[in-house]
Each structure stands twice: as structure tokens, then as C-alpha cells.
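SEVERITY: medium
COMPONENT: batch folding queue
REPORTER: lab tech (J.R.)

DESCRIPTION
The queue accepted two submissions in a row. Attaching both inputs and their returned C-alpha cells so the on-call engineer can compare them side by side.

ATTACHMENT 1
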Amino acid sequence: MAIGVYFSFENTTLEQYDEVSRKLNNGNTLTKLSQWPGGGILEHAAWQEESGSLCVFDVWESAEAFQRFGEKLMPIIGEVGLPQAEPHIVQLHNFIAS
């Protein structure tokens, strides 16, 4: 069952987000879902709020796929200096993609 995952990182810049993206993809910015390590991501969106928070919303094919990705992501988040943020994870009732 697909899950939705929402993060909100306080006081985080778009430059920090881009650095995480590059580190996840061996120096290149992630531009295609097929480039994401571990597979299983179905959709991804990121934006900066006026408050300075960086928000990320993903749809993953399963909790296991997100967990595999998290094992790669979490050390990189620490390297780049993003603040700790607990993900809000929900089971999706419906997900329609183009």
C-alpha cells in the first residue's frame, strides 16, 4: 500500500536541499525518480515556506521502500546540517498519477 511522507525542516535553505539531492545522486541533482537510490518513490515535491521551513512531500510504494531510502538519506541530512525533523507518514487511501 502506498504511503505519503511529509517533512518540515525549520530554518533550512533551498541550497541545503539541493546539496542533499546532489549527495544522494553522486554529485548530480536528482531530476528523475529513477535516479533515487533504492527505488520505490512514486512522487516528490519540495518547497520553501515564507517562515523559512523547507517542506517535502513524497509518495512511496511502501513503508519498506521509504525505510530503505531513509537509511541513505539520514546520514546525508546530518552532513549537510539540516535540523532533525520527524516525518509524518500516512497510509494513502487513493493515489492517482499521470
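ATTACHMENT 2
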Amino acid sequence: MDANINLPPSKRASPWVYFALAYGVSWLFWVPAALWGRDVTTFPVMLLLYLGGVGPPLAAIVLTYLTQRRAGRRDFWCRAVDLRRIGAGWYAGILLTFPTLIGLAVLLDILTGGAVPRFETAARFLSRPLAILPFAFFMLIFGPLPEELGWRGYALDRLQARWGALASSLVLGAAWALWHLPLFFIRDTYQHGLGLGSLRFWLFFADLVPKSILYTWIYNNNRRSTLSAVLFHFMGNLTGELCTLPERAELYKVLWVAIAALVVIAIWGPGTLARRRTSPAAVDEIPPHEGGDWS
């Protein structure tokens, strides 16, 4: 497992510095967007929304280039694009975990008296299959890709250098959830539609913490592949868009995510959440910061 990365001791590489910078950039744009009080589809609210989304990747890129030499910078980008890091068998977990968990939530809701959800978005794409391509591309670019360059691509390694995989996942999950808070105050965002203080509001935050454990599990078992986390995040978002759940089914989904996280902890262990427990050569290639020369 690649989690025990040889990181520079510089405070600029600290996960807390990363969180402060990521939050600072995102909230710098999102707070004014919320205070503007207009619909997210209007200008400049939409622009501010998208600019705020660059907080996690921008913080990761800036800190990587400040604290790592060439090998560390190359490692950062390689983990985001190298398909070879992802084990062939792990694609099943990446592609099927969230559809399975949502399917179980829908089934449990139906068995307890709920109605079959209307798959309106999915039905629309069945009649126009090619329309899903720009939809999926937009979803990938404005969510999973930029976020995971930061959360898993940068912050997770720094947390795991200090604590075990489980503790790191819980800290990152809480930070990841709280980062979304201003979006609840921007009119007509997905988060705003959940309702501030509603059951769905609390489920949103409760969902991301155990979900973070699953992300670490995917990441650590695929040689610290940021791309694996991007694809996993994308499948979670896509499945959620194609299947809008009623409130009780949403509660069941969070329950199933928590159960899946507990199963992962029980089988793979809280220390690494991975089968392999030896430090691989790929991590050792990243030299520590020694000051002066960052070329």
C-alpha cells in the first residue's frame, strides 16, 4: 500500500495548511455568491460558483509545487492520469459500488412500503442516449476531477503520513463535507434544494464521512491512484443524478454506505484499508524537501 509517503516536513505541506487554502479560495467566491441572493444560473453567481470549485485543486497544485521537487510533482500528475495504477479487478468496485448501494436502498424502501422511484433523468437519456455524453463530461469536469486532485490527490497522503487510514478518512470526510456549507445558501444549487437544517441536510453531511472511508479503500488499494478516486466520485454523482431518491430511501442509502464502510474496515483493517501493507518503491521516489532547490 502506498500510503506511507515520504513527505517533506515543511509546514506548507501540512494537511491543515492545505485545508485552510482550499477553504479560503472556495469560500472567497462562494460567500459573495450566497450574499448576492440571486439564482445560481444568473451572472455573476454562476461564475462565482465555478471559481469556488477550483479551491481544492488549486491548493493542491500550489502546495505540491512549493514543497516537492521534480519527482514529487511528477508523482502528483501521474497518479491523476495513469490507468495502470488501477488493478483490473478494482474497476468492478469503482463502477458498481454506488449503483449497488443505491439499488439496495431503493429495494429496502420498497419493502418497507415506499414507492418505486421515478427514474426521470435515466428515462430521458434512454430516449436520447448520446445526450448522456456531454452531461457526463460536464459532471466529471465540475466535480470529481477538480475535487479529487485535492482531497485524495493531496490531502489524504498527508493525513495518512500522521495517522492510520481510518482516522485519516474520518478527518478528510468531515473536512470534505464542511467545505460544501456555503452552497446551501446559494439559491437553486443542489445543496440549497436539500433545505438548510432539514433531514436531507443532515443526511448530506452524514453520508460523506463513511463514504470517505470507501474512497480511501479504493485509493490505497490502487497504488494511490487519484484517477481511481475521480472515477469512484464520478460514479457516485452519476448514479445519484440518474436516480433521485425519496427521503426515506436517501436515509437507507446512508445506512448502506455506513454498512459498506464497516465491512471494508473489518476485512481490510483500519490501519491501511488495503491488502498490501509494505511501502512500495513508488512512494520512496518522492524526495523530502531539503530547502532551496525545488527544480
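NOTES FROM REPORTER
Residues 174 and 233 are 16 Å apart (CA to CA).
No errors were logged for either attachment.
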